[in-house]
Amino acid sequence: MHRLTAMMLPLLLAIPAVAQDEIADGATDLGSGTASYYGDELAGNRTASGERFDPDDLTAAHRTLAFGSRVRVTNLANGQSVVVRINDRGPFSRGRVIDVSHAAAREIGMDRAGLARVSMTLLDNETELAAADNAAGAAAVGAAD
User: Fold this and answer.
1) 101 Cβ contact partners less than 8 Å away, ≥ 6 residues apart
2) Which of 26, 32, 79, 129 is the least buried, fewest Cβ under 10 Å from its Cβ?
3) CA distance 97 to 118
4) Which residues, 6+ apart, have CB-to-CB distance to 57 below 8 Å?
């Protein structure tokens, strides 16, 4: 038993830090920090991914995540969350971890304050993405009623 433990310990220590933050459902915890949102005056400008910025889309800018990545952003003050797609680089303001679109800011109740303390979770699992899409669809149906 001790021999097995001695052989496994180096392997466990070699697991990358990102993998250690993996949440049970297949998503990855990206930590927390301050979020801000893009102003509507940037509508139509090209993002770093090449697409045009639309403040009504649920998109965001992150310094390092791959374009197309889906991230659940949760406002720590009220527990509201939204799933955004990374399509730009930034934020470039010191102390900020993510810039979200105006639509995403409204979804999590930070559009009036402009800033919010948030946690972020990278959704890299098809089950998580399907659940997020279903939640978004249900919210849209509820808003239409």
Assistant:
1) 37, 38, 53, 54, 55, 56, 57, 58, 59, 60, 84
2) 79
3) 9
4) 85, 101, 103
**pLDDT tens per residue, range 5-29:** 444 444 433 333 333 344 445 689 9
Q: Report the alpha-carbon distance of residue 61 to residue 47 in Å, rounded.
A: 9
CB atoms within 10 A of CB 19: 9
pTM confidence score: 0.71
Hey, what CATH topology would domain 21-144 get?
Barwin-like endoglucanases (2.40.40)
- Beta-strand pair 96-100/28-37: parallel
Name the residue type at position 54: D
What the block records as the tokens of 70 is 């889906």
* Residue 10: predicted pLDDT: 45
Write the DSSP symbol of residue 117.
E
